[in-house]
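Notes, Module 5: Reading structure tokens.

Key idea: the token line is not a picture. It is a compressed description, and you learn to read it the same way you learned to read a sequence, by spotting repeated patterns. We will look at two proteins. The first is printed below with its tokens.
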Amino acid sequence: MLSVREIPESQHLAFLEEQPSASFLQTPAWGRVKSEWRRESLGWFRDDELVGAALVLYRQLPKVKRYLAYLPEGPVIDWETEQLRDWLDPLTTHLKEQGAFGVRMGPPVVTRRWTAAQVKEGIADDAVRRLDDLAPSERDMVGARVVCQLDELGWRRQVAEGGFAAGQPQYVFQVPLVDAEGAPRTEDDVLKGMNQLWRRNIKKAAKEGVEVTSSASPEDLKAFHDLYVHTAQRDHFTPRPLAYFQTMVDALGSESPDRIKLWFARHEGELVASSISIRVGTHAWYSYGASSTEKREVRGSNAVQWAMIQDALAAGAAVYDLRGITDTLDPDDSHVGLIQFKVGTGGEAVEYAGEWDLPLNRALYKAFDVYMRRR
């Protein structure tokens, strides 16, 4: 019999450090980054043994002390179980006692994968418009079982246009850093898996004298942010403020010295590309990136990515995660350029189970749903 109760952040972090990996969105530090939400660390106990953990973020309804309980890319539990109800029932009972009118979570389980070659062929094929039009290279039985169980338990899948879930992306692009047997790949192995353009651009950056450095110091953050704001103006998206990144670097960096790094590519002293990487255990992520409009020919963005991949390999990571993509393979879709850039790394498109909601108070949940759609 499993029970759920609040645990200290120190116990939560210690549990995560015993796992091969977990999403950085499930670390106690991420709750401090999302300061506009109320946060809680929860533990699953079998008798007195801690066997699961979660970061829960509570978002309050306007003018009412009722909350949406959100578990981004979590919880960290035994997803291979055939009795998922035994894990989720005590969770929802606890959340309801905390004033939650609904629960949203993102099970960290893969459902399907497609190779870089498949994606490239799909983009070139006029009959293919989405990843769904391609037979996957792999279907994951654990993921399929989780989806079936959630359906049976009354959870509702949340999917927005293009495969972007309500909170976190359902589709990502990843570069495996271990082979099928789990043995580490070498830098040469990874380079050989990249397409010719990526290999050429990495070599060109080196030939042009692009220098890549890394830092975990918040003092270096403004240089990244200035270039990031420049990138936002060029690519027409709304940038996050400097204070957000300061909180992110402070919170994640204080949790573990290897958790977050800033990366800088400079050519003749001029910053041409910059990025942020995050790692939890054997999972490394490319989180944010920026590049200058000038000197694009020196390929600073490719140099930064390659340096981050090398760093992940040296740290013993099993996967390098370039985060979200849409599911489009339509060459006329403006989003296809994103997947084309990432496909060049020679990795794979990966579909997760996505985000799922469970209404605990149907009237309040419906009101919240309407409110979110009108924003």
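Here is the second protein, with the sequence above and the tokens below, as before.
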Amino acid sequence: MVTNDEGRAAREAKLEYLHDTLATTVEALVSAEDWVRALEFAARFRSRSFNNTLLIWVQHEAAFEAGKVPNPVPSHVAGYRQWQQLGRQVQKGQQGYMIFAPVTGRFASSNPADPSSWHRLGPREKHKVNEVVRTRMVGARPAYVWDVTQTEGDPIPETPAPKLLDGEAPAGLWGGLAAQVEALGFEVVQVSDAGQIGGADGLTDYTTRQVSVRTDVTEVNQVATLVHELAHVLMHDPKDEEARQHRGVREVEAESVALMIGAAHGLDTSGYTIPYVAGWASSVKDTEPAEVIKATGERVRKTALGILDRLDTFQVANGTPPGLTRELSDRVAPGTDAGRERPTVPSVPVVEPEIEPVTVFAGRGL
């Protein structure tokens, strides 16, 4: 029989292994090409945190190389009991992919506005009549997910993939993005060529509250530019002190969001994104390009997810098996991982790039 101390030690060992695996995987993002591959993968597993996406990626890749799974890229992943909900069973001998999952606790307060008033409730402790109760994450634990190819049983519905002609943008994508820009108080202006906006593909002017996009390029390029500028509006308002970072970081973040939105719609924008990200990441003084791009992963994912959630366009699957239902106790807030196996974001070092004053303009293509 395993004692509490032995169980705790085993759990800590697994968490340490996860942190080491994550650190090694992040360090492997040494080029713009690697970063783009990671973002494209994350776009197809966007219901998972960025760090857990990387963990799934590297473990599935190892399973494929060992001949344990038939495909180099997973399609749908879920927990053991979640697969059972769908009438499928994990095959004997198939090892799950270890990820981070949250450990939560209940906290109560009679004055929620006062941070010091909150106190943690015991497992069966009831709150007082005048208290508000909220659940918060207090730690992390290891959990496991399996790819659909590691399971057998009832078939799951195949999610259709968008089919687009070369250079064609998905129906409704431009309108949906433009509506989000306008909802933030900016006017979308279409210009005939780059010469009207200083040689850029797009430009965000925080003074006039205008987002300009050139129209003498393909539809794909136009929507990619528009989402790039929308990312600037959402993430890099000059009034926000957190946005006052090196322009190279801002451009990497905005273009990474554009790539994720494109990938979620079946678009390939890597031909533009790779040199763009590589150029701007290299421009950050005293910081290695890999350090710049790896520090933005979860921030990019959350921004992209917020944009996608407000679109009614046809999007590729997000990594959660179609038809999966959850018990009420398993339901989670939008933008977080699903189910009891839902991972959380572990602490990783954050790069502190050179700070530079934010200018009025932020353009794509300059």
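Summary for the second protein:
- Residues 28 and 34 are 8 Å apart (CA to CA).
- The longest strand covers residues 132-147.
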